[in-house]
Design brief:
This protein has 8 helices and 7 strands. With 253 residues, the protein is an alpha/beta fold.
């Protein structure tokens, strides 16, 4: 706890699912946490949970694909909670479809949130990290980066996140900043529920089918990803950078 005094973390897409679990975990680890999502009101439940445990938290509404909104949001976090030195780029959307049915808007929306959003947030926050000579950037990729039917846009974006992460590690390492990516497998969230709905399969049936093919015989939980983020954000992970950790219940090809 003492090692994180006056350190602030920003988690995007944190109103629910993986992002909410990550925000709660980092608060338990001793960070002040900015809970950032498109709708500030939607962030308040997570913020209230964190504050009820005696930690600091701030709800921030911002579109991560909007340059001006990102700059304003990060400045607000710095003013209220202190200079952000941990960033978790988790915000994401899906617009799944087979290639011949995928629209240009489907492609652009996914690319803008996942890749442009990670770029804009990382660029805005790195200034504070370099000033502090300490920082942790954790980007959420996916096993879909290896290729997944009906997700040409999402797979390309998540593969791009991995290349982006490795480049950040090379550029920012000399400032005491690490950059790593986490690639979750199937995790039970509203997003994966939407995937089941798109496929016309009841979610419980979909989850059971997926779990049957996972070596640990279960699907992932948001807390599984939060635990991995906690490690990458820790003081002890300072010699780990540019890595992609697959959190998927088994090996990934």
């Amino acid at each position: 706890m003492n090692t994180h005094e006056r350190r602030t973390a920003v988690v995007t897409g944190a109103a629910r699912g993986i992002g909410a679990a990550v925000a709660r975990r980092l608060a338990l680890d001793g960070f002040a946490v900015a809970v950032l999502d498109l709708d500030e009101v939607a962030c308040r439940t997570v913020v209230d949970d964190i504050r009820s445990e005696g930690a600091q938290a701030l709800a921030v509404g911002a579109d991560v694909a909007d340059e001006a909104a990102v700059e304003t949001a990060v400045e607000r976090v710095a003013d209220v909670l202190g200079p952000p030195t941990v960033l978790v780029n988790n915000a994401g959307v899906i617009r799944d479809n087979l290639l011949f049915r995928m629209t240009g808007d489907d492609w652009d929306t996914v690319m803008n949130v996942h890749l442009r959003g990670a770029f804009l947030m990382s660029r805005a926050v790195q200034r504070f990290m370099t000033e502090q000579r300490w920082g942790r950037i954790v980007n959420l990729s996916s096993t879909s980066a290896l290729g997944n039917r009906g997700q040409a846009n999402y797979a390309a974006a998540k593969a791009g996140v991995q290349g982006f992460t490795k480049t950040l590690a090379v550029e920012l390492g000399r400032f005491g900043i690490t950059a790593n990516a986490i690639a979750p497998g199937f995790v039970e969230t509203d997003m994966t529920a939407a995937t089941a709905e798109r496929m016309g399969v009841p979610f419980e049936e979909f989850k059971a089918s997926v779990a049957a093919g996972v070596p640990v015989a279960r699907i992932g939980r948001p807390e599984d990803i939060a635990h991995a983020v906690s490690y990458f954000a820790s003081e002890g992970a300072g010699f780990v950078s540019g890595q992609v950790l697959y959190v998927a219940g088994g090996p990934c090809d």
